[in-house]
Amino acid sequence: MSVITLDHVTKKYGDSVVVNDITDEFRDGEFITLLGPSGCGKTTMLRMIAGFEKPTSGEIRIDGHVVSSSDTFVPPEKRELGMVFQSYAVWPHLNVFGNVAYPLKIRKMPKTEIKEKVEKVLETVHLSQYAKRMPSELSGGQQQRVALARALVAQPKVLLLDEPLSNLDAKLRERMRFEIKEIQERLGINVIYVTHDQGEAMTMSDRVFVINSGVLQQVGTPVDIYRRPENQFVADFVGKVNFLKGVSENGKIRLDGIEESLDYSGDMTGAVDVAVRPENIRITDTDSHLHGRLISEYFTGDTNDCRIAVGQSELRMIAEAGTFGRFSPEDTINLTITDFMVFPASDKDLRKIMT
Question: Is the model's pTM score more than 0.85?
Answer without folding.
Answer: yes
